[in-house]
């Protein structure tokens, strides 16, 4: 039997040494990517928590949120296109929820493009429920944003 993602992936907090590799994942995943300087800036943001997912020391995904009062607001999540479809997204979302929980978050909220059905499936599989719509939210295409929320029940285990 093959290994499960948690057996061959390492998820940890992003550091300054990771920002170039994270920007590479970002550039692979999005048509209008944030540059490395954005991620470097986020390391100085006291509200921000960013995780990286690595396989054999190579960063293949990242995710981040801002902790605002008792709510974690997801900034983004991406898995490199060559590593998708094998459960790494689910692993990373689980780690994000665990990190938010360990910081005292009572809920975690995110928005996704209405057309991003793979993201919707990922979030539904990891316990998020649709809770709203922001019409025309994305300036580049005028697309709506779907809001999804997950109530966090206190977890034990990893601290990121
Ligand atoms: C969204 C993303 C992070 C998912 O990562 P991933 O590692 O491929 O996701 P997983 O393999 O964990 O799959 C999670 C679920 O998504 C769905 N899914 C994944 N790939 C899919 C595909 N090609 N077609 C349809 N559904 C798919 C499935 O429901 C899957 O659950 P299952 O394996 O139990 O059926 C990845 O596609 C990505 O980085 N996309 C570009 C960036 C992006 O859109 N980020 C989200 C911004 S809101």
Secondary-structure blueprint:
Blueprint: H1 5-8, E1 9-13, H2 19-29, H3 36-43, E2 48-55, E3 58-68, E4 71-79, H4 88-102, E5 107-113, H5 117-125, E6 129-134, E7 145-151
Parallel strand pairs: 4-5
Antiparallel strand pairs: 1-2, 2-3, 3-4, 5-7, 6-7
Helix pairs in contact: 2-3
Coenzyme A binds at residues 29, 77-79, 84-90, 112, 116, 118-119, 121-122, 125.
> Strand count, sense and closure of the main sheet?
7 strands, mixed
Strand content: 25-35%
Structural class: alpha+beta
Helix content: 25-40%
**Oligomeric grouping of the chains:** single chain
Instruction: Please name the CATH architecture of the domain at 5-110.
Output: 3-Layer(aba) Sandwich
Question: Summary?
Answer:
With 160 residues, the chain is of the alpha+beta class.
List keywords for this structure.
single chain; 160 residues; alpha+beta; Aminopeptidase; seven-stranded mixed β-sheet; 29% helix; 33% strand; globular; binds coenzyme A
